[in-house]
Amino acid sequence: MEQELKLTAINPFAVAEQVLGKKVKWDELEDQEESLAGVFNVPKEELFAHDSVIINPMLSAKGELLTREKAQTQLKTYLEAKTVKKLTLKTRSIKQIALKDISSKTINAVFLESVKSAKNTEWNPANTVWLDKGDYFEDVAELTDPVQGSLADCYYISALCSVAWSRPYAIINATSPSRNGNEDSPLHQVPFYNTKGTIENVVVGEAVPCSSSTKNILYASSADSGEIWPAVMEKAYAKWKTGNTTDKPNFLSIEYGDCVEACRQLIGGTKTYKYTSDMTASQIATFVRSNSLSRRTFNPMVAWTPSRQPSGCDYAKAHIVANHAYSILGWVSSNNSYYIVLRNPWGTYHGVLDCLSGSYSGMLNNNWHCFTYGRNGVFAMKVDTFKKYFSGLGVVK
Questions:
Q1: What 3-state class would DSSP assign to 304?
Q2: Does residue 170 or residue 348 have the better pLDDT?
Q3: Residues 59-71: tens digit of each pLDDT
Q4: Is the pLDDT of residue 288 over 60?
Q5: What distance in Å separates the CA atoms of residue 142 and residue 224, rounded to the nearest whole number?
Q6: Which of 32, 92, 125, 389 has the fewest CB atoms within 10 Å, measured from its CB?
Q7: How far is CA 11 from CA 152, 342, 346, 377, in A?
Q8: pLDDT, average across residues 211-220
Q9: What class has domain 270-396?
Q10: What per-residue confidence (pLDDT) applies to 312?
Q11: C-alpha dihedral over 76, 80, 82, 85, to 10 degrees?
């Protein structure tokens, strides 16, 4: 019997942008890790460690799930201790904010006020405004579109990416204009599959939570500027999970969850979990290949890491995140070895240990789509290393 996953990693790059009050092109920085660590005034080795309090504030030192109140206290204590030390870090690309502001701004970015979350109550936390930030689609749904925000829903964003890649028209056809909407105030009807496999439709508008000061989207966004389908899909999911009757559901209700189950909720079907400890590297490669065509997955596939790094692993050096969900895009072979192609839903911070350079191509709708490794969170990791660093992978079909 599979165990329900509770993956909790947030996107520290999104948190940093809220602290800084501006968007940053992280992949273009000379040393994105050093720059990011400078925003929080912590060494990058600590920021990306398997027990990082900033990336996984909801986990205890033992890897147990904390309440929001305890997690907030843990993060506050950690940041204040680092601020007092006044570490000196080189931040050539990002101007560091005042040390005294780091703690409060980071905590506010991660832990918004819960407010009331009754089914007929709008969620309006302090310092937040609901805005329509663009067009639903600028183009067809693409795997690199969804970018996780400062919400612990990596499991859902990775599922969105996997579905957008393996079955893009499931995303396009999933949302239909509501007959009650209009050009100025569009509404979308989004279907989700309940535990019985029955479709439940949710109608939402395009306004999503934004910072009242910067007007930037707080949570999921799209890598395509002006496109908001990932944000609206995240909002629809929050409304469905809470049963909220308003158009302003509490997003905090979807923090931590199961990436395989999220894929099933998006497209229906049957889910399968595989655990790397029970498989050889060859069996892992065969499993991914059996759900792929022309090296691209045709069934949504995801992978996840354990809450604490296994013995002999170094997540910080490998650029792998603990208790985090990733999309599986397909596979490639090089020098008689198989590699699993993955994407980090942060849209950056790709794996670097035993990973290929160059680019990945997959056939989609009779066209080859090419993605550069090390951009938009995409990387190809040797299957032996994948087995060591990841705890499981799953598919829905």
A1: strand
A2: 348
A3: 998 889 999 899 9
A4: yes
A5: 9
A6: 92
A7: 8, 17, 6, 12
A8: 91
A9: alpha beta
A10: 95
A11: -170
